[in-house]
Amino acid sequence: MTHTLIQQLPKAELHIHIEGSFEPELMFHIAQRNHIQLPYHSIDEVKQAYNFHNLQSFLDIYYAGAGVLLHEQDFYDLAWAYFEKCHADNVVHTEIFFDPQTHTDRGVAFATVINGLYRACQDAKNRLGISSSLIMCFLRHLSQEKAFETLKQAEAFRDKIIGVGLDSSEVGHPPNKFKEVFAEARRQGYRIVAHAGEEGPPEYIWEALNLLHVERVDHGVRCEEDNALMERLKADDMPLTVCPLSNLKLCVVNDMRLHNIKRLLEQGLCVTVNSDDPAYFGGYMNDNFTAIAQSLELSDQQLKQLAINSFKASFLSDEQKQMWIGRINAL
Ligand code: ADE
Ligand code: ZN
């Protein structure tokens, strides 16, 4: 019953790193095609390496995997495989993160990355009816100067990128470090999001709100530690893009039954469900929905509200939002 509803609900995904959707099978295939030797002998060996104790232990493996992507077709194939998962899960709209610096730092041209991803987005619309947009993230372990260089490189592709985000190693790299480059991105008309409050303290969420002027907070689950922050998030109706299986795999929570997404929802926060890095964390959108529905005993109405929130928090037009929300309410 719950399973059927989860499948039937149209959903938007707002927190997915395309490099985190790189399944080991495709990784091996592209590595072979590009004559790159992976440090693993088999797909099983890759999966065994996916045992993380915090964010950094995951990021080290995630950046190594992304290292086999060289050509436009590689980026296309990566994104297309993700769109097929969206299709299977009834994800009808997705706002996809990509990390340009992970590729440009290895000598891959910005154009190669964006052209491959964008072509997959167009094909997803035409062949699967899935709408999408691309959000480029600055790597926060690198300098603000490097982020400015990336923003400059993106200028030639301004029409293909809807927004700017901030990801990678959170602790020690507060939003404050990037306030000037985000001000410039805002001036150029980009939509603004940032990871904050995944491993980092509530103070980083405050900075994302007050210094970067984000329109959504990615993760944000540590907001509960600060009552004034909870009140601010409610007053602003600020969306949090929560990633339950990610939080479990990266030990942000130790048991799904202890996840705070239900409490946040019941307190009226605009929380959404997302997969973050599904190839590494054990599942795509519907796996995330199923995990919380079971562990937290969510009602059908709560599942519907989470799907409604995903459209409400998206960068779709008001008309598109209303269309999808209407379909959810009719279920
Ligand atoms: N890059 C990919 N996934 C991430 C996450 N969960 N947090 C920060 N940076 C990331
Ligand atoms: Zn993320």
UniProtKB/TrEMBL annotation:
Enzyme class, first EC level, given as a word = hydrolase
Among InterPro entries, the record links this protein to:
A_deaminase_dom (IPR001365), ADE (IPR028892), Ado/ade_deaminase (IPR006330), Metal_Hydrolase (IPR032466)
One annotated GO molecular function is: adenine deaminase activity
The entry's cellular-component GO terms read:
cytosol
The domain of life for this entry's organism is: Bacteria
Q: Does the keyword Metal-binding apply?
A: yes
Q: Which residues form the Adenosine deaminase domain?
A: 10-328
In its UniProt record, which GO terms are filed under biological process?
Answer: adenine catabolic process; hypoxanthine salvage; nucleotide metabolic process
Where, by residue number, does substrate bind?
A: D277
Q: How is the cofactor bound?
A: Binds 1 zinc ion per subunit.
Q: Which residues form the active site?
A: E198
Q: One Pfam family, short name please?
A: A_deaminase
Requisite cofactors = Zn(2+)
What EC number(s) has UniProt assigned to this enzyme? Answer: 3.5.4.2
Listed binding positions for Zn(2+) are H15, H17, H195, D276
Provide the site residues for: Important for catalytic activity.
H219
Q: Which UniProt keywords apply?
A: Hydrolase, Metal-binding, Nucleotide metabolism, Zinc
Q: Which HAMAP family match?
A: Adenine_deaminase (MF_01962)
Q: Provide the family line.
A: Belongs to the metallo-dependent hydrolases superfamily. Adenosine and AMP deaminases family. Adenine deaminase type 2 subfamily.
NCBIfam families assigned to the protein according to its UniProt record, in alphabetical order: aden_deam, PRK09358.1-6
Name of this chain's protein: Adenine deaminase
